[in-house]
Amino acid sequence: QLYRDARECLTLLSQRLGSQKFFFGDSPASLDAFVFSRLAPLLKAKLPNGKLQQHLKSLQNLCNYCTSILSLYFPWDGGEILGDPPTSTPRAAGADGGEAEEDPHKRRNQLLSVLVGLAAMLGYAFLSGIVSIQRGGSVGPGGRQPMALEEEEEEE
């Protein structure tokens, strides 16, 4: 029953789309985003029972609809989502046989991310009062002068 309902839904979507580029004319609407988010994975996913996927592939206008959205909004990987081979050249292998890094500044960006995170944590700690810096001549809580660790041990 579920497959039958899904097939009927796909057929109705295909009929509603017709030969239009999007469901409501030449520009996409929220319905287009919703429908695309369901159709694109259905075209790509490896399913235990491929009947629904085969039915979708038989509805050429829905397949063209997905391909059009992929090429328009996701040009860098549109073909790969639908199972086509990637159009880019394969990554170059390094001298040690491993793959070269895709982003030449990857290590720098990682280091900057860690430093920004550390600065944010320290800033929060200072601003929230978890950590504070006191000057040497200031009086501590309770009106007492801060002591060094050795002085505290001797006092006990």
From TrEMBL:
Record-level GO cellular component terms: SAM complex
Membrane-spanning parts: 111-133
Gene Ontology biological process terms in this record: mitochondrion organization
Domain Metaxin glutathione S-transferase stretches: 6-69
Record keyword Transmembrane present: yes
Region (Disordered): 84-106, 137-156
Alphabetically ordered keywords of this record: Membrane, Transmembrane, Transmembrane helix
Coiled coil: none
SUPFAM superfamilies in the record: GST C-terminal domain-like (SSF47616)
One Pfam family here: GST_C_6
Official protein name in the record: MTX1 protein
Originating organism: Nyctibius bracteatus (Rufous potoo)
Gene label: Mtx1
